[in-house]
């Protein structure tokens, strides 16, 4: 299911993904406006995921008290930590080539934008198989907002006992409360 979802997303024409991303960003405006976090975590786009960087930059510019953060793996099989991110700051690359703040202030997000590969209406998702977000959501209290394209929606992603559901799902089709979140 994960491989199928990744292949479908990567096969979608770039022009179509741009249109979907624009709709997603508009949907994030309404949800994040309602949730009103001071600290917001997001993920650097990987493998044709929805690119939230420009939206996060606009969000930051809306209020000087806002803080954005990127996840960092500091220890395998442990929860993620989140380090403050500012546009233009120097970033290191992890083993997959994904940029992250190698040093800096650790922050506690109130809301995290979590990429969706495959997902279901209950809010369960398939990431990349490492379990990092599941461990993180089990350890840190925050609102998890799954962000992805409708082409990854499944009837059931067959979650396991350790999987954690998102609270909200945001796609190009709208904002949906997760039925298990």
What does this structure look like?
This protein has 181 residues and is α/β, with parallel strands linked by helices. Helices cover 27% and strands 22% of the residues. It has helices spanning 2-11, 14-35, 53-61, 132-139; strands at residues 39-41, 67-72, 81-85, 92-93, 99-100, 111-115, 118-119, 125-126, 143-147, 168-171, 174-177. Strands 3-2-1-6-9-10-11 form a seven-stranded mixed beta sheet, sandwiched between helices. The model has no long low-confidence stretch (mean pLDDT 95).
Shape: globular
**Secondary-structure element string:** HHEHEEEEEEEHEEE
Summarize the main sheet.
Answer: 7 strands, mixed
Assembly state of the chains shown: single chain
User: How many strand elements?
Assistant: 11
Low-confidence stretches: none
Q: What is the radius of gyration computed over CA atoms, rounded to a whole number of angstroms?
A: 15 Å
Number of helices: 4
Report mean pLDDT, rounded to a whole number. Answer: 95
Please give the share of residues in helix: 25-40%
The strands making up the biggest β-sheet line up spatially as: 3-2-1-6-9-10-11
Give me the secondary-structure category.
Answer: alpha/beta
Strand content: 15-25%
Topology:
Blueprint: H1 2-11, H2 14-35, E1 39-41, H3 53-61, E2 67-72, E3 81-85, E4 92-93, E5 99-100, E6 111-115, E7 118-119, E8 125-126, H4 132-139, E9 143-147, E10 168-171, E11 174-177
Parallel strand pairs: 1-2, 1-6, 6-9, 9-10
Antiparallel strand pairs: 2-3, 4-5, 7-8, 10-11
Describe the structure concisely for a colleague.
With 181 residues, the protein is an alpha/beta fold.
